[in-house]
């Protein structure tokens, strides 16, 4: 089963993709994680991507489409996968449909994570991410047991460079302008279902798994 997670930054797509990935055998394909990896490797791709990421803009379509095109060929994607943060433009969505159809596959469902902007800003500006395993914490609502240290792997918690208020506002604007049209794209294909993302991660996960059954 191939599922797209659609929603603004901070709506919990990454958290839910990790959880769902660990209970089903579907890898989480996050273009954001792939790009951050390229940045920390210091590759040419990473340097190019960082110019866009650091200001909250989208990385050009050809770059992310290339990453996904390669990634979905891997063996672990055979049973299905979760697309977390891709596609983000109509062009990406159309290219994705085409590359899947060449493999005789298609997207099963698109989950739309819904939540208001004020809560997103609160979540993102207080978010801390583990530099080791990617686990997420929050300075107020999900504090680690030891300050600055990941509960799960002992890694160092960092604040993502793009999780500051100016860049967050820009990312939200980019989401409205460039990614929201995908809601209509997947609705027209009868694949879209809404998820109330204001609730606790446990409740959201239960709802997601329940709703996904209708598309299996
Ligand atoms: P994320 O971790 O999904 O919030 O992504 C962080 C940043 O990476 C975004 O603000 C974009 O600059 C870039 N990015 C991630 N995925 C995409 C995508 N599908 N298309 C374009 N840019 C992306």
Topology:
Blueprint: E1 2-6, H1 13-23, E2 28-30, H2 31-41, H3 44-53, H4 61-71, E3 81-84, H5 90-102, E4 109-114, H6 117-125, E5 127-130, E6 136-138, E7 157-158, H7 165-179, H8 181-188, E8 192-196, H9 201-212
Parallel strand pairs: 1-3, 1-4, 2-3, 4-8
Antiparallel strand pairs: 5-6, 5-7
Helix pairs in contact: 1-9, 2-3, 4-5, 6-7
Adenosine monophosphate binds next to helix 2 and helix 3.
Describe the structure.
This protein has a single domain (2-115, 176-215), classed as P-loop containing nucleotide triphosphate hydrolases (Rossmann fold). Helix content is 46%, strand content 15%. It is built from nine helices and eight strands. It has helices spanning 13-23, 31-41, 44-53, 61-71, 90-102, 117-125, 165-179, 181-188, 201-212; strands at residues 2-6, 28-30, 81-84, 109-114, 127-130, 136-138, 157-158, 192-196. The strands form two sheets. Strands 2-3-1-4-8 form a five-stranded parallel β-sheet. The relative contact order is 0.19. Bound molecules: adenosine monophosphate. Adenosine monophosphate (AMP) is lined by residues 9, 31-32, 35, 52-53, 56-59, 64, 85-88, 92, 162, 171.
Q: Helix- and strand-based class? A: alpha/beta
Q: Enumerate the strands of the largest sheet in spatial order, edge to edge or round the barrel.
A: 2-3-1-4-8
Main sheet, how many strands, which sense, barrel?
5 strands, parallel
List the ligand species. adenosine monophosphate
Mean pLDDT score, rounded? 96
What string, H for helix and E for strand, traces the elements in order?
Answer: EHEHHHEHEHEEEHHEH
Can you tell me the residue ranges where pLDDT is under 50 for at least 5 consecutive residues? none
Per CATH, the architecture is 3-Layer(aba) Sandwich
Taking Cα atoms only, what radius of gyration do you get, to the nearest Å? 17 Å
């Amino acid at each position: 089963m191939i599922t797209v997670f659609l929603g603004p930054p901070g709506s919990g797509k990454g958290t839910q993709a990790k959880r769902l990935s660990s209970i089903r055998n579907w890898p989480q394909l996050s273009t954001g994680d792939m790009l951050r990896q390229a940045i920390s490797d210091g590759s040419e791709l990473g340097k190019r991507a960082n110019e866009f990421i650091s200001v909250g803009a989208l990385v050009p379509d050809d770059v992310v489409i290339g990453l996904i095109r390669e990634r979905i060929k891997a063996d672990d994607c055979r049973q299905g996968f979760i697309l977390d943060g891709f596609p983000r433009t109509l062009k990406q969505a159309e290219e994705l449909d085409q590359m899947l159809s060449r493999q005789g596959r298609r997207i099963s469902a698109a989950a739309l994570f819904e939540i208001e902007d004020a809560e997103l800003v609160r979540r993102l500006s207080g978010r801390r991410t583990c530099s080791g395993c990617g686990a997420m914490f929050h300075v107020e609502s999900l504090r680690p047991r030891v300050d600055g240290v990941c509960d799960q792997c002992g890694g160092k918690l960092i604040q993502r460079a793009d999780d500051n208020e100016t860049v967050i506002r820009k990312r939200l604007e980019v989401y409205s302008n460039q990614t929201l049209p995908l809601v209509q794209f997947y609705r027209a294909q009868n694949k879209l279902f809404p998820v109330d993302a204001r609730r606790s991660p446990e409740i959201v996960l239960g709802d997601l798994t329940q709703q996904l059954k209708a598309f299996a």
